[in-house]
Specification:
The chain is of the alpha/beta class. The protein contains 11 helices and 11 strands. It has 2 domains: 6-219, Spore Coat Polysaccharide Biosynthesis Protein SpsA, Chain A (Alpha-Beta Complex), CATH 3.90.550; 226-333.
C-alpha cells in the first residue's frame, strides 16, 4: 500500500466557525491521493450552504441529513460513501499539518489495523491535547488523556499501542467494515474507545503515529449550558454502561459496575451546590435508557464475543493506565476524567 487513497470523513453540525480552516488545511496537504467526504447533520448556521458550494465545485463529497443523527451514525454514513483503502475520521474543529497524510500513508505500509494521530492544542500549538485515551483498570472506565497538558518535546515520538481518542484517527476500510463500524447507540462519545477496544479484543492494536500531527480545539475552555450538562451526563452514563455491557467479561463487569455507577453519580451531584440539577436528571435518564435497551445491548455483546481473542486483563496490561492515587487526583483536578 505505497500510495493508498485516503478517505477523510468529517461529520459537520453547525460548524460554520471551524469547517473552513479544517478543509483549508486538508487541501494544503503535500499528499494528494485523498478524497473528502462530509456528512452534514442538519446544520442551520450557514455551514451547509458553504459545503454545498464546495460539492458543486467537486472538491468534496457531501451527504445531508435533515436532523442531527449523531457523530457515530454520520461517520458510518460517510464510510459507506468512501472509496479509500484508509478511512481518516477527522473532527470538523481540527486542522492538520501539511505532512500529516504523508505520515499516515507511510504508517499503513506496515500491517497495522488502525492508528491515532498526535493531537495538539489548537491555540497552544506546542502543547499536547491527547495521544490517546487512558483506561484506568482499577476503576474500569474512568478516562484520561495521555500526554494532556505537556509541552511536546518529542518525549512520545516512539510508536506505541494506544486506545483511540477520536478527533483524528485512521482505520483500514476493510477492518472498519469487518468490526461492524461505529455503534450508533453511542450517538457522541465512546464510539472511538469502543471501536479501539474491539480491535484489541481481536488481538490487534491501534498504533500512535507521532509524526502525523493534528490540532484540535480545547472544549474544556467553553462553558456548558445547564441543558447541555443534562445531555452530557445522560450520554456519559449511557455510553459508559453500554461499553461495559458490550465489551467486558462478566467477571469484570460485576467487579467494576458499582464503583463506576457511584463515581458517575458523584459527578452528577457536584453541580447541585450551584443549583444545577440537570446532570442528576441526566444520570437517571441514562439509567432509564438502559432498562429499555438491555435486549439490544446483550445482542451486541454476543456479536463482540465472536471476535474476542484477548482477555480484558491482557488489554489492560497493554494499554491500561495504572495511575497512583496522586496522579489520579491530578487528572480529576485538571478535568481529564470523563
Amino acid at each position: 500500500m505505497k500510495n493508498p487513497l485516503i478517505s477523510i470523513i468529517i461529520a459537520n453540525w453547525n460548524g460554520s466557525e471551524v469547517i473552513g480552516p479544517c478543509l483549508k488545511s486538508i487541501f494544503q496537504s503535500n499528499f494528494k491521493n485523498f478524497e473528502v467526504v462530509i456528512v452534514d447533520n442538519g446544520s442551520t448556521d450557514g455551514s451547509l450552504e458553504y459545503l454545498e458550494k464546495l460539492e458543486q465545485e467537486k472538491k468534496i463529497i457531501l451527504s445531508k441529513n435533515k436532523t442531527n443523527l449523531g457523530y457515530a451514525m454520520a461517520i458510518n454514513q460517510g464510510a459507506q460513501c468512501a472509496k479509500g483503502e484508509l478511512l481518516f475520521f477527522l473532527n470538523s474543529d481540527t486542522t492538520i499539518e501539511k505532512n500529516c497524510l504523508d505520515e499516515i500513508a507511510k504508517g499503513f505500509q506496515e500491517s497495522i489495523w488502525a492508528a491515532q494521530c498526535k493531537i495538539r492544542q489548537m491555540d497552544r500549538r506546542e502543547e499536547i491535547q491527547t495521544l490517546g485515551t487512558l483506561l484506568v483498570p482499577g476503576l474500569a472506565i474512568v478516562i484520561g488523556k495521555k500526554g494532556r497538558g505537556e509541552k511536546d518535546r518529542g518525549q512520545y515520538d516512539k510508536r506505541q499501542p494506544v486506545i483511540s481518542s477520536g478527533a483524528a484517527q485512521v482505520i483500514r476500510a476493510e477492518v472498519f467494515e469487518r468490526l461492524g463500524q461505529f455503534d450508533s447507540d453511542y450517538f457522541a462519545g465512546y464510539e472511538d474507545i469502543d471501536l479501539a477496544y474491539r480491535i484489541y479484543l481481536a488481538k490487534k492494536e491501534v498504533i500512535l503515529l507521532p509524526q502525523a500531527i493534528a490540532y484540535h480545539r480545547d472544549h474544556t475552555k467553553y462553558p456548558m449550558s445547564k441543558l447541555r450538562a443534562k445531555i452530557g451526563a445522560f450520554q456519559t452514563l449511557k455510553n459508559v454502561l453500554l461499553f461495559m455491557i458490550r465489551n467486558y467479561q462478566w467477571a469484570n463487569f460485576i467487579k467494576y459496575i458499582l464503583p463506576v455507577l457511584a463515581y458517575q453519580f458523584f459527578l452528577s451531584l457536584v453541580p447541585i451546590a450551584k443549583r444545577n440539577f440537570y446532570p442528576l436528571l441526566g444520570y437517571w435518564w441514562g439509567m432509564g435508557w438502559h432498562l429499555v435497551h438491555l435486549p439490544s445491548s446483550f445482542k451486541k455483546r454476543k456479536a463482540v464475543g465472536k471476535i474476542r481473542k484477548n482477555s480484558d486483563q491482557e488489554i489492560f496490561n497493554l494499554v491500561g493506565a495504572n495511575l497512583g492515587l496522586g496522579q489520579l487526583f491530578r487528572y480529576i483536578r485538571n478535568g481529564c476524567l470523563a
